[in-house]
Every structure is written in C-alpha cells, then in structure tokens.
Amino acid sequence: MTRGWPATLREGRIGLRPIRLRDAAAWRAVRKVNVEWLRPWEATLPLGEHDAPMSFAGMVRRLRAEAREGRSLPWIITLDGSLVGQVTVGGIARGSLLSGYIGYWIDSRVAGQGITPTAVAMATDHCFNALGLHRVEINIRPENTASLRVVDKLGFRPEGQRERYLHIDGDWRDHLTFALRREDVPEGVLTRWRTTRSLAR
C-alpha cells in the first residue's frame, strides 16, 4: 500500500474511487458518446512514435503500477455511483519538490453541474493532506474555456504559458499553467469551493 492510496472520496452525489478493470464497459460507453467532445483536449502520439494504442486493460494496469509506485492517483469520477469521468494525479514527485499535476475529463451530458470542480477540489485536498504535497498544477489549452472555468472557480493561480507543451489532437499545443500551494488554501480547496458555490446561489 502506498501513502494516500488507494483512496475513495465523496462529496454528496459526487465520488472519486480507484479505476478498476471491471469499469471497462461503462468507461468505453461514456467515451464513445464523448468522442467529439474530448478530441480537442486528448493527448496523442507525435509523428514517429510507434507505440500501439493502449487498451483499457493496459491503461488500468499501467495506472495501477504507477499508483503502487506512488507516482499516480487514478480515479474514476462517479455521480450517484455511475461513471461520468476521470481524474488522475500524475507526475508525483517527492523529496524537495513535493509536487504533482492533475488531468481530468467529464461526460458532456453532465458538464456544467459543478462535478469537475468538486472532483478536482477533492483530489487536490487529498494531495495536500494525505500525500503531503506542497504544490499541485493543472495545464490547460488556452482554447479550453470549460477547463479554464474549473481552475478559476477553485482559485488556481496562473503561472504563465508553456509553448508547444503537450501533443494534443495531432500537434504540439501551447498550454496555460495554473497551480495551488498548500499554504494558499489553509481551509482546504473543497471548503473554499463549497463557500464559492453557496455565495453564487
């Protein structure tokens, strides 16, 4: 068992739980409906890379291995127990850095309901409290207005632009970097998000 993993988190109807092999059918069904919705933001292999596309089982085994090594936290997002997306904390570094980054996707049919910011808030708090990380970052394409709203809602601090940072949708794409440090949110990200939501109502 790795520090802070496995972990299951919940906030009302929204949950985070470790991804598992038996999620295959539900995961594929949600992804099939959302092909066009997700394509502009999905990682792709650069020309010359010859890795075969990874199967769902291969992806889960890789993520589980990384989780056992303390380098990743691969969660499924659930709404009322049903799979609606994914949040993965990756690139976890210990030692003097104590950092990681968060990536996520959500089913377009439930987008805009506060599910993604709630899931990211829970994941970030877990990184700070259970893992003891100092910094969490999120990298977003400038055109991805939905993801930009997530970091804005949660108070992630803009740190600048990384040119041609990740290979996305067939080319190298610029990304904006946002980050939070543990001392930025002594009350916790989820608590701050709850307050923000209640004031907006």
Description:
By secondary structure, the protein is of the alpha+beta class. It has one domain (9-200): Aminopeptidase (3-Layer(aba) Sandwich). 32% of the residues lie in helices and 32% in strands. The chain contains six helices and eight strands. It has helices at residues 24-33, 35-38, 56-68, 115-129, 145-154, 189-200; strands at residues 9-11, 14-18, 73-79, 82-93, 99-106, 135-140, 157-168, 171-181. An eight-stranded mixed sheet has the order 1-2-3-4-5-6-8-7, with helices on both faces. Strand 7 (157-168) and strand 8 form a beta hairpin. Helix 4 packs across helix 5 (145-154). The protein starts with 8 loop residues before the first strand and ends with a helix. The model has no long low-confidence stretch (mean pLDDT 94).
CATH architecture: 3-Layer(aba) Sandwich
Low-confidence stretches: none
- Specify Rg, calculated over alpha carbons: 16 Å
How far is it from the N-terminal to the C-terminal residue, by CA?
41 Å
Number of strands: 8
Overall mean pLDDT? 94
What is the makeup of the main sheet? Answer: 8 strands, mixed
Shape: globular
List the helices and strands and how they pair.
Blueprint: E1 9-11, E2 14-18, H1 24-33, H2 35-38, H3 56-68, E3 73-79, E4 82-93, E5 99-106, H4 115-129, E6 135-140, H5 145-154, E7 157-168, E8 171-181, H6 189-200
Parallel strand pairs: 5-6
Antiparallel strand pairs: 1-2, 2-3, 3-4, 4-5, 6-8, 7-8
Helix pairs in contact: 4-5
What is the gist of this entry?
The protein is an alpha+beta fold and 201 residues long.
Characteristic terms for this protein:
201 residues; Aminopeptidase; 6 helices; globular
